[in-house]
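Subject: Sanity check before I submit

Could someone independently write out the structure tokens for this chain? I want to compare against mine line by line before I put it in a report. The sequence has 367 residues.
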Amino acid sequence: MFYEDLAPTHIIPAYPLTWICGDLHLENFGSYKGDNRLVYFDLNDFDEACLAPATWEVTRMVTSICTALNTMGASRDEAAHVAGLYVKAYAQALGKGRSRYIEPQTAQGIVQAFLTKVADRKQKELVSERTVKQMGQLVLRIDNKKLFLIEQALKTRLCDHINNWLQQQFNGHRQYRVIDAGFRIAGTGSIGVKRYIFLVERLDVEGKYLLIDMKQAMPSVVEPNINIQQPAWQSEAERVVAVQERMQNISPALLAATVFENESYVIKEMQPTADKIDFSTLKNRYTDIKAVVEDMALLTASAQLRSSGRQGAAIADELIAFGRDGSWMQSIITYAGDYAHQVKKDYQEYFSAYNIGYFTDSNQTVI
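---
Independent answer below. Compare away.
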């Protein structure tokens, strides 16, 4: 809905073209362990990734800031002030033309505390939380809330697929084997897509396990709203992985695309943490909010600079000039402030419909 409403307007300049994650908002920044096993704080959701105007990505993020602050009780002027901090920091970082990254050693304030805490969490703790022992064998803990059983025939095919994929990843060496699998529910926008979790045993080290997430990749919701030629990806998962690898400084461990029974999936190692900052805990803590927002602006600009010049994206010089121009900033802040109220109105309409039973089974035929 956001992009359907944004596309027809002429308030926001539709340039320069960059790679965008497509769903940039406050909770789509988070921490993760990279394939080098170090912890990073960065953009971390690329399901809607595509080639699009940089201003669209920024406008979506600023709308998120205004919506969050409005929900936390801030006035429109206060929300506009914080939004301005984000836009200004983004423009400054872009204008310098140098991509940066955030890790525990370079982070400050609440992000530093968050990353330090995450770095101390171990894979063993994650496995322990999500598994139980049955007849001497470690298996996934099925709670029928976020993790469900899979029909046995499908489970066998899924495990065989991941075992083959693991062998390919490690050049034919059997370092890992799948010992259990389940159907996983996680996230909000991901509800309704196929998503599986695999418990994997390391064969060369006794008692070592890891969890692998395999999520179905769907078409980007941004693309239908833009008239921009996209690369001819082999699959939706290849699009997600390719853009993520070029925008992030370091990608999560085992990030890859795969095709299972003619459907594409993104694979990655599950992280031992709930990896998003809870902004509701920052209410009235504007110094912390300011610091986090400026970090997010730095990361947004860095991701665009890092992926510049790739398959139709503007080169770094164009991004630098755009950042130094600054004439576009106020139009984004104004639009986002207005649209934050539209978001609240849309939510209230949805919630009212939900309360009167519009989304119950008996009404599904009219949805």
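---
OP: Matches mine. For the report I'm noting this point. The longest strand covers residues 176-184.
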